[in-house]
Amino acid sequence: MRVLGLDFGSKTVGVAVSDPLGLTAQGVEIIRRKSENKLRQTLARIEALIEEYHVGILVLGFPKNMNNTLGDRAEKSLEFKEMLERRTGLPVIMWDERLTTVEANRTLIEGRIRREHRKEYVDMLAAVFILQGYLDSEHIRKEREETAGDKEQETIREDS
């Protein structure tokens, strides 16, 4: 089962998808719209990508303020989360996206992408960073669970 990562902006949605094993994130595309409130085509495109890639979970960037408060963009992201859940029936995990756009821009600068071309990639790359953060976190969580299970088994053997 793959995971779809989304960087939701006022006029674009960066999209990334995991590999089938859930180890790496790859950029897919940037969905563009003319108006912030026109989401029907955006949602339809996300549904098509879910079907194409056999996605089971969505990870949506959560743009908290640096002091951990929720601003206007975070509120709009929560509204978009509800729309996604209703429309797709899939779980949507909110993932802290602070500084992902900064990191994406820095990566593009280091890759010597000209300033006028960075807009073509920055949202998709931010979605990759959001999704990769989630995937890495899940991998670490699973390793800890396995380690805890192994220790529990050792304790049971010692007690026998």
Write up what this structure looks like.
This protein is an alpha/beta fold and 160 residues long. It contains five helices and five strands. A five-stranded mixed sheet has the order 3-2-1-4-5, with helices on both faces. Helix 3 (100-110) crosses helix 5.
β-strand number = 5
Number of helices: 5
Helix-strand string: EEEHEHEHHH
Question: Structural class, judged by helices and strands?
Answer: alpha/beta
Largest sheet: 5 strands, mixed
Largest beta sheet: strand ordering:
3-2-1-4-5
- Whole-angstrom Rg: 18 Å
Distance between the termini: 39 Å
Helix content: 40-55%
Taken from the alpha-carbon principal axes, the silhouette is globular
Average residue-wise pLDDT: 86
Portion in beta strands: 15-25%
Poorly predicted runs of 5 or more residues: none
Summarize the structure.
By secondary structure, the protein is an alpha/beta fold.
Which descriptors would you attach to this protein?
5 helices, 160 residues, alpha/beta, globular
Task: Describe how the helices and strands are arranged.
Layout lengths: L1 E7 L3 E7 L6 E8 L7 H14 L1 E8 L9 H17 L3 E5 L3 H11 L4 H4 L3 H38 L1
Parallel strand pairs: 1-4, 4-5
Antiparallel strand pairs: 1-2, 2-3
Helix pairs in contact: 3-5
